[in-house]
Amino acid sequence: MTISTKAMVGLVGATTALAMAGCGSDSSSDGSASSGSSTAKGGKIALLLPESKTTRYESQDKPLFEAAVKASCSDCQILYSNADQDASKQQQQAEAAITNGAKVIVLDPVDAASAGSIVKRAAQSKIPVISYDRLVAGGSKPDYYISFDNETVGKLQATSLVSQLGDAKGKQIVMINGAPTDGNAALFKKGAHSVLDSSGVKIGKEYDTPDWSPDEAQNEMDQAITALGKNNIDGVYTANDGTAGGAIAAMKSAGMDPTKIPSTGQDAELAGVQRVVAGEQGMTVYKAIKPEAEDAAKLAVSLVQGKGAPAGLITGTTNNGTADIQSIILTPVAVTKDKVKDTIIKDGFLKASDICTGTYAKACTALGIS
Ligand code: GAL
Predict the structure, then answer these.
(1) Residue 108's CATH number
(2) Which long-range contacts link 254-257 to residues 24+ away (Cβ below 8 Å)?
(3) Cβ 292 under 6 angstroms from ligand 1
(4) Is there an atom of ligand 1 within 6 Å of 280 CB?
(5) Hey, which residues does 144 pair with through a beta bridge?
(6) Are 226 and 296 found together in one domain?
(7) What is the mean pLDDT of the chain?
């Protein structure tokens, strides 16, 4: 309690802070916390997710994280908040979680830079922060980071797009990237450019999409169609399934046939996978959120119980511009329609019965999905 912010920020391995944070009361000594770890009880874990326009957060991350925490720690309590894409709301939600006694914060930042102040505030109260899916920057040092290899996400998307364009040379595409406040979006974009820029395709128009909003993506695509002409667009790089949905809607209303104009996506959202199966969206990137949420839960429980990271969980470090953050990095998978069955469905991420409804039934049958 008397440790200064400066001293906390100076900690390289956050083990001491973590040991202290695990105590039932913040005045307990770190020694008793570490030695008593085998009988460790629970504590409050804050889960702060960024938005609800992308379906993964409410339908996958939250329930999977909660189930994994409950399974390994019946005494643990989760303080959940979704910031609905509002960075200052997330700041308040973090404050509220700290006031309500959170001992660990799992933070998926709306805004990578401004969320740095949440991490610094947590450090003042000796609360470890796990940067979840998106890496917090802003001069802060979150204690841990768990995510996918996000540059690879962009590379997978662009590689698939280029291959679906056939001979890419001379073909023109539109690029619709994610939110400029999301550090991951910058990595997807970087990975995509690393493939596209040397492929011979021409990027006719490129946009960053505020809030990852599908409506914004639709507007951007409308503008691109007006500027370039509907017959001069051969493909679309869209950074996730939500933005792909917006771009495809714009193409349809302009009388373009999305089955002939390959596009990309990410998140394996139900609507995105349905479009992939129907051939309207060229691909999605499947990120197995179950291991991501479960590893985050394992780590959070261990920290709340005053132990460090479980052995073998940390696989490397990632620099956030301020420090090397201990990281768990998972592998994303490109999914074209022929791969849906052996990836997303095989893993139980989505059910065939949910995908293959109504007009999608025929396409599912043709792909052997049942
Ligand atoms: C990213 C995340 C993606 C997607 C996107 C839109 O940061 O990694 O999976 O959800 O945000 O929210």
Answers:
(1) 3.40.50.2300
(2) 254/222, 254/225, 254/230, 255/230, 256/225, 256/230
(3) no
(4) no
(5) 130, 326
(6) no
(7) 91
Yes or no: say if 103 and 21 are a contact pair by the CB < 8 Å rule. Answer: yes
Q: Are 203 and 257 part of one and the same domain?
A: yes
133/175 same-domain check: no
Distance CA 69, CA 306 (A): 15
DSSP category for residue 339: G
Q: What is the distance in A from the centroid of ligand 1 to the CA of 350?
A: 18
**Number of structural domains found in the chain:** 2
Assess whether the C-beta atom of 60 lies below 6 angstroms from ligand 1.
no
**Range 324-328 contact pairs with CB under 8 angstroms and sequence separation of 24 or more:** 325/131, 325/135, 325/141, 325/142, 325/143, 325/144, 325/145, 326/13, 326/143, 326/144, 326/145, 327/144, 327/145, 327/146, 327/147, 328/144, 328/145, 328/146, 328/147, 328/295, 328/299
For the whole model, what pTM was predicted?
0.88
Q: Please say if the pLDDT value at position 224 is more than 50.
A: yes
Residue 30 CB less than 6 A away from ligand 1: no
Strands (E), the chain: 44-49, 77-82, 102-107, 129-132, 144-148, 172-177, 202-208, 235-238, 284-286, 316-319, 324-330, 333-335
What is the tens place of the pLDDT at every residue in 125-171?
A: 999 999 999 999 999 999 999 999 999 999 999 999 999 999 889 99
- State the Cα–Cα distance between residues 4 and 9, nearest whole angstrom: 9
Structural domain boundaries, residue 273: 150-286+333-366
Q: Which atom of ligand 1 is nearest to the CA of 57?
A: 10
